[in-house]
Amino acid sequence: MKVQNTSAELRRLALTTAAALSVTTVAQAKDLFEFTAVTTDALPPLNLVQGSSNLPDRITELVDGTGQFNQLNNREFIASLRYGGVQQALRFNIQQVGPNWTAQLTSPFDPALINRNFAGMTRSDLEDQIDQYLQQNGLGDLAKLLSALDRRTIAGALDGNPVAATSVAANAYFGEYGLRPTETEEETNAEGDTGTSRSGIAMTADAGTFRSEDFEGETYSWTPMVPVALGDSRRVRLEVSLPLNYTSIEGADQFRVGGQVAVAMLLKKRTKDQPLLWQVTPHAGALVAGSLDMLAGGVLMSGGATSYLSYRWNRWEFSMGNHVSFHEGLSVTVDDYQFNPDVSQQILKNGVKVGRSLGQRWYAEGYVIDTEFLQDAFISRYLTVGAGIGYRGPNRKGYVMLGLYGSFGDDYSSGNLQFGTGWKF
Predict the structure, then answer these.
(1) pTM for the predicted model, two decimal places
(2) Which CATH number describes the domain made up of 165-424?
(3) Domain segments of the chain: what residues?
(4) Between the CA of residue 156 and those of 32, 101, 148, 340, what are the distances in Å?
């Protein structure tokens, strides 16, 4: 009897070692999430690999032994999760001790983040405890886990890469106030000051694709805005905008809804005899970001300032934009899951643009923008190169623009199409 027990223990040890080795291999599938499970009991060994774009559903099925993991029902096993490009983001050790079931949840890629134990009469009891943990007691653990993942993979929904929520907010600020559209010949020759603010309504739409870590995704943005000129001099403009964004990476959906307020101050007016223009814009806002597929979300508060300096020479215009913004996380609830994002990021954007008026009401321009995350990030710096063409109606009462741009960083590339239009009163 003692020999049989010893044999069973050796078998369990060998299978456990095999499980630990197997989950460290690099996955070749393009699924954003991948579970590798290896049984550790005395029954015939079983090795399962399942990919997914929906993390909560797969975790539920894994622990409960249902759905894609129904072969693990009433089996002891060790399973590892690849989250984006991060191997062993989570590790599940499910064992039966007498009539009870136990589960250990750890984060091997960073052991200090999570180490929790659960026990129940059935596997369903374990699933209920882990689900409750993710909704309530595990808020701090989950926030730290997601923050660490943001710094290691393109699958970071909140921070650390060009399609994360912090970037969406910074791009909205800089796109509106960092590099203004080139003035047309008609605007330059107009009587009085040029570049002054007017009330109206405007919108910008953006669509693109990106690739990183062998993962592919797409992103869509739409930002309506309402500028209101303040005072008779029209040197100050209050602007309220509503950035909306949908991003999908390998089938995992992310949604962002924001609100931003800015005060654009024209410190130096351009005239027919004075070619310099300088505008400074302080701004603040909030962005609600949520992805149930990725178990990530939260509210990001932001604030900062953007400077725009432009010099006109004949039909040419040379411009420079500089931006800094600060992003901090607040908690939010999405479908019974409460997220408290551990985000504290600062972003710098610096760009130059060369534009030229074409005829009286057309213009063309090209630009380069450097973006840098000041705190730890998966893609800490990237370059954006773009070009566009635009038309302004008579008396500067309306405009339309169309542009293309691409962004490039370490193991990252993207291409986007941009369209904008507006009407001034």
Answers:
(1) 0.87
(2) 2.40.128.130
(3) 2-137, 165-424
(4) 11, 33, 9, 15
